[in-house]
């Protein structure tokens, strides 16, 4: 009788663990919008092509012909510290340290029509409005704010390719909706190459905008539909005088004219509104054509039920969030599910509903059996985000690799993406880290395309001699300091990428390729100066550069980091690095120094990406090159120090507040680090099937895998005090080393940590 009772209870318990929970409630998109996080609070869906979010100022990229440093604060368009909103635009990067986008800004107003945005100090001098965070709501898939100056309530939601607006007006015969086609992020006078708008009828218009800049040939098509006919409309052109304009001057194009074009255009639409009347807008995007934008709109939002679209967006988010169900404190849940939310924003869908997309060759292509993606911030995301996808989003990871291969096929340079950006490569940052993503996906069984073709693409990219010092690297085994300002970090990152290529070649039994690239993967040794124990710039004559400071981030041969952090960047061969640095005891002591030293402000005064908030001792968590370092104690005899440091970083660098991120989220990399580390394991070297163990901050987590299996993490007696691991069981068997394999996860099972307040030495 007892057995009959227990069995159903166990079944109910298992069912409850996998049942959908309301996890949207823990997502706070406002996290990271203050200071350095560079996230945005607006509405999007998982991996959506539309990111509909408020802008809080209109800074130019340049002032007086020089870079305007203040523009860096607006990489996501929104800064929590600001007091005004200039409008709501449809494209944004999440957490980047450089920017673009901010396309098609919409702003509702009442009273006298104003087409300039005004200033933060005088919002009433333009169409912008004051707002208060007290009247602001930011949720997964939904954003709401009261625009104080005109007492208009703005609400936003979205589908994959369509943004939906809902504006609640006061009674007026002077209600307006402004469409600013000049606005943008990292904007400047010549950024917009051309804009075209066609007014189809009194509720529909279509068009496109072409911009240059970070993506130099970026064209976005749109379709915009109103729930209510406008009574009149017009435009204002801010174009400079041209030598020749044809004979369009025969028309008055400023009012009620159905076809307009130019570089600098703003449009307005006039309405009579009743008290509390809601005017809704559907705004669809396409990389291909106006017709496709209209098809995207009609396919994804057929009617005008805003609440239905919002509910659909949040249900989509909830389904994705339920892929991992954790038991933890409320603040930990907020941090975890907001991190999961941020991780599932990018890369972004770059395929219309009919499968078409614009390729790197600027031609129209059709994705055959996959979704094409863009927004690959690979210098950041190869480290943890893409490995996280190989566990929790394997089908999407497969499509992302196929997108990279399509990029390679369409590239005139025959290179895999460095930083993929709306049918462009903006070539930002160093390394050729798409090879890491591809190798990791194939080695972990995610990619179902031709692996040998993928390896060929990796090899071709790694041998592109005229790209950022690769020729010198191939000939000398390092990049001379005279030839590159980031010579050391490039050599280190190329070495790791080459190791990833070698691992793929080994898996495919391409031993000639393996031999070549495993040898190249040792090139990091050429920049290691044994006499001082640091990575150091080397000159073409083989001598080390004399002027050198291991703490400085400027002029030392590193990108976004210093030698103290980069000297540990050999994720593919920690054993050799430890030996080079004098053995396990000396190496661990050196790690101790990194985490406890003081790094004076002067050593990061000249970099935008490193601030005091993101630093622990000399360890820079707010930037990516150091993200694996705390796990390196696992290769010494002191793994308990990994456990202590991981928990310290989790507590110091991630908080459930607007300023809760210690650095740029960088398209989800910071968030992926948080999730891996809070679950208790991390991919130190993607391209390997091994994860290093740390110290889980959750009490329990169930990973609902795409293959139908579950992997459970349990942390017995886990608490803020009990950060040390006394023992670990995998499926009931004790582990003798602090490592697990990818197959341990994907086969399903249970990883049990027994936590303690004192280290197990």
> Which radius of gyration do the C-alpha atoms yield?
27 Å
Structural class estimated from helices and strands: alpha+beta
What is the tally of beta strands? 38
**CATH topology description of the domain at 28-241 and 250-310:** Beta-galactosidase, Chain A, domain 5
* Architecture per CATH nomenclature, i.e. the level-2 architecture of the domain at 28-241 and 250-310: Distorted Sandwich
Principal-axis shape: globular
**What composes the largest sheet?**
9 strands, antiparallel
The residue-averaged pLDDT reads: 96
- Helicity, in percent? 25-40%
Observed structural traits:
alpha+beta; disordered N terminus; 761 residues; Beta-galactosidase, Chain A, domain 5; globular
Word description of this protein:
With 761 residues, the chain is α+β, with helices and mostly antiparallel strands. The protein has a domain of 275 residues: Distorted Sandwich (Beta-galactosidase, Chain A, domain 5). Helices cover 27% and strands 23% of the residues. It has 18 helices and 38 strands. The strands form twelve sheets. Strands 8-9-10-11-19-15-14-13-17 form a nine-stranded antiparallel sheet. Strands 20-33-34-38-35-36 form a six-stranded mixed sheet. A four-stranded antiparallel sheet has the order 6-12-18-16, with no helix packed on it. Strand 10 and strand 11 form a beta hairpin. Helix 8 packs antiparallel against helix 9 and helix 9 packs antiparallel against helix 11. The longest helix is centred in the middle third of the chain and has 21 residues. The chain starts with a helix and ends in a 5-residue tail after the last strand.
